[in-house]
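Q: Entry one of two.
A:
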Amino acid sequence: MNLNNLKKLSGDASFRKFYRSGKSIVVFCRREKKNNLLIYDAINKILIKNKIKAPKLLNQKYKKNLIEIEDLGDVSVYYKLKYKKINKLKYYKKIILLLSKLQKIKTKKIKTFNNTNYIVPKYSKDKLFEESKLFLDWYIPKVIKKKKQKFIKNKLKIIIKILLKKIKNKNHVFVHRDFHVSNLMEYKKKIAIIDNQDALYGNHAYDPASLIDDVRLRTSNPLKEKIFKYFLKRNKYINKMEFKNDFDLLSVLRNIKIIGIFTRLSTRDKKHYYLKLIPHAWKLIEYRINNNLLFNDLKLFLDKNFSIKIRQKKWKK
């Protein structure tokens, strides 16, 4: 298959490249291809098995670094919410119903197209800590003077470890791990989920935090609160106080991670588009830490070391 003869599509934050071939999508990936092709399809299979729409595998040429999957079209939920005049709350309620279904998945093992077993891992606190280090390793060197970097990194590690100990709930639900409207597609009047390769079993507050505190699509704080309340209404078994505790913690930690990821994408991968989203990621962090006493130490530390000028920096390539 000659990829040069196919229409190249806009990519995502992974190493994958996408091409449209008739009624299918060809996914090419040379770097980290196990995660981006093999595990990507394995998680898709789990979703499909549980009656959630995801890209179906049509063909695989793994040795040639590509797979062929079902084409779910071009209309993302991000596009619908940003550019169409629709009732946003009503649409988010539809998404919450899908998320509730996603969190009920119990499948933990699936056969891959290479005839191996893939076991969905757990989202440990060690994993959350490692993710937060992306901020330390990629963002801090870009905005903090060299002589202060070691102190700031060490202090922030301590604060993050303390916050992680305050997470209440166990890792017992299926977590997409990047559940936001850019990874949801409008397909035949249903919502399909893409970019599924990073799924884990984790905290039931993680995906709601990804959806509500979405760095890519700006929503008002009143709308955020309405979506939050609707999720709890649809999931009455959840302890509201514990859920709110974990939601705020995971939202802040996730957006700290995202700032690190976006900086890495620019520095390492020359994907500079994501830099313009960093100021809004800071706004999302501020909204949570300014309204929850859990974050007193973090707020004082960030306010002291990351000025408004740093947070709202207009990035250059």
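Q: Entry two of two.
A:
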Amino acid sequence: MKIMLVGATGSLGRVTRRELLTTTDAQLVLVSRHAANLTTDDARERALNINVLDGVVLANALIGVEAVFVALSGDLTAMARSIVMAMTAAGVSRLVFISSMGIYNEIPASVGARGNLAHNPMLGPYREAADIVAASGLNYTVIRPGWFDNGSDDYVVTRECEPFGGHDVSRRAIARLAVAALTDAQLYSHESVGINRP
């Protein structure tokens, strides 16, 4: 299986890459604006310096890819549009996209309701990007993590219509969920799921 990691040099991209290398035999395409700085396993990895807003270059890089993981910051709305268009053009369907807790105002008061979009306009682009992904026609899974750290890797998953379960989650837990979804196209297919430490 060939998987593209978009945002491969970010904190979630690095941990997800490591999880894929140690738990699967997948071939990896590592995409970042700083991919040239990566030390790669030439037998399994290819690193590409790509600006994801360049849809033509991204679509060409997607040839032969079966699943795409995205963990980015910046202009998420434009990035999500470009990624969806490139994947559609390349005929790649499976997308696992990292967003944020709170985009559906699903954080209850017990966890910290001020972290919801209704109180935190900084989440607007995360919601817009998730909406673009959900309307894309792709086989998507949006993952909405709590604040990530390097603590316990235990995690629970909540569905879009359920209250968010907790404030924190480890990067490795997010990576494990992402890898499970990347390697099983039916797992949380066409869903937006929250992940937090129990």
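A: Comment on entry two: The chain has one domain: 2-196. DSSP finds five helices and ten strands in the chain.
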